[in-house]
């Protein structure tokens, strides 16, 4: 019952019905706390405590949820991570990540990750019209490759009625993604939390849900206003 109540609270949060969601969260956590007290199985107690700790309520009504992605975990493709926050009213997205640059850097496919993220936005159910990217210039000989790849993504997005604006900063450090419905997602490793695939024809190369992940933490917030870069 507690888990179902919390699930209902998440649905209300996504629908921006924050007062109702707060009541559901409080009821759900109270029910889960009662279960913890009545449970003698220490493993179950730990799972319930972890579930409770995922939800933190701030006095001003803001929302915070934390997801821990373990080393080599699978099932954390972009669609799985973002889908419940990409409601139909989302039309504008801000991506702040200093490492959207070389196609291959330290065994990572950073520009391809950004492309996959854009593909998810194009598929919906959101109606994204504008994507704003703030990143840093590639250091060294990879800058021309970086610019060419980003320009190709920009042109491709325009075929789907989506405008991509690109800005660069030499001092950017934070990594976060914001939607104009108020949701903000901070990922410790940015979009680059997937491990390098074993080969171009290995399972997980195309489907990110099957790709092992690096250990990282995802913090999800809801704010009344999404600041613009």
From TrEMBL:
Domain MIT: 2-54
Chain segments annotated as transmembrane: none
One Pfam family matching this protein: MIT_C
GO biological process: midbody abscission
Cited SUPFAM superfamilies: MIT domain (SSF116846)
InterPro entries: MIT_dom, MIT_dom_sf, MIT_domain_contain_protein1, MITD1_C, MITD1_C_sf
Sequence ranges assigned to domain MITD1 C-terminal phospholipase D-like in this UniProt record: 75-222
GO terms for cellular component: midbody
Name the UniProt record assigns to this protein: MITD1 protein
Species in which this protein is naturally found: Chloropsis hardwickii
Gene name for this UniProt entry: Mitd1
């Amino acid at each position: 019952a507690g888990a179902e109540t919390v699930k209902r609270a998440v649905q209300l949060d996504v629908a921006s019905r924050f007062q109702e969601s707060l009541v559901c969260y409080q009821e759900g956590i109270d029910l889960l706390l009662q279960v913890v007290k009545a449970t003698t199985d220490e493993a179950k107690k730990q799972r319930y405590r972890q579930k409770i700790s995922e939800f933190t309520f701030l006095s001003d009504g803001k929302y915070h949820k934390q997801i821990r992605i373990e080393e080599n975990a699978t099932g954390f493709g972009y669609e799985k991570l973002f889908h419940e926050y990409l409601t139909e009213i989302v039309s504008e997205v801000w991506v702040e990540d200093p490492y959207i640059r070389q196609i291959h850097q330290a065994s990572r496919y950073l520009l391809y990750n950004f492309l996959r993220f854009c593909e998810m936005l194009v598929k919906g159910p959101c109606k994204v019209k504008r994507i704003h990217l703030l990143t840093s210039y590639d250091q060294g000989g990879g800058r021309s490759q970086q610019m060419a790849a980003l320009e190709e993504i920009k042109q491709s997005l325009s075929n789907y009625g989506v405008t991509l604006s690109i800005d660069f900063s030499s001092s950017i450090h934070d990594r976060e993604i914001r939607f104009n419905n108020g949701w903000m997602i901070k990922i410790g490793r940015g979009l680059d939390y997937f491990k390098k695939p074993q080969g171009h024809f290995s399972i997980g190369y195309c489907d990110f849900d099957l790709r092992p992940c690096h250990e990282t933490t995802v913090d999800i917030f809801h704010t009344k206003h999404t600041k613009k870069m």
